[in-house]
Every structure is written in structure tokens, then in C-alpha cells.
Design brief:
It is a single chain. The longest helix has 15 residues. Helix 1 packs across helix 3, helix 1 packs parallel to helix 4 and helix 3 crosses helix 4. The chain is mainly α. The protein starts with about 25 loop residues before the first helix and ends in an 8-residue tail after the last helix.
């Protein structure tokens, strides 16, 4: 397995699909979105990234719209951070 190449002998590798419904805990998706929207982790300084209340509300809306998909959360956050014309989560 190419991902495991170079790891010490005997290392156990488990590939997890984060889009599997049993791994998609709603609160974890909110935390994922919130972290990705945080300036500490590279998000630009914008009104919705610097204000903790707004950032959390936006993260919760993103997670809700994403359903069970961590990938959708990440793609949505990337879109929002690069959408100069604004965005609509509706």
C-alpha cells in the first residue's frame, strides 16, 4: 500500500472514509468547518472568520447543509473563503 510505504515494520494502517455515515458526527462537522474558518489555521481576516459567534453560526450552517460529508464541508469552506462576490448557503 503506497500510503504505508516508509512506515516502521509492524505499523498498522487503517484507511477511513470520512464520508461514511457512521463517522460523520454532526458536531465534528461543525468543528471541522469552524477550524477551517479560523484565521489561526490560515483563513483570511474577514468579518465571519474573526468574530467567534459569527464563525460558529456559519460553521453550523455549513455542517447542516453538508449532511454527513466532511468533503462537502471542506469544499464549501474553500468556496466561501474565495468568493469575492459573497455567498448564499440557502
Amino acid at each position: 500500500m503506497p500510503l504505508a510505504d516508509g512506515l516502521p515494520a509492524g505499523t498498522v494502517v487503517q484507511i477511513m472514509d470520512l464520508d461514511e455515515p457512521q463517522l460523520a458526527y454532526p458536531e465534528l462537522l461543525v468543528r471541522h468547518a469552524e477550524a477551517a474558518l479560523t484565521t489561526q489555521f490560515g483563513a483570511p481576516e474577514l468579518p465571519f472568520t474573526t468574530d467567534a459567534r459569527i464563525r460558529h453560526a456559519l460553521a453550523a450552517a455549513i455542517a447542516h447543509q453538508a449532511g454527513t460529508s466532511a468533503l462537502v464541508v471542506q469544499l464549501t469552506v474553500q468556496y466561501i473563503l474565495t468568493a469575492p462576490e459573497g455567498f448564499d448557503l440557502a
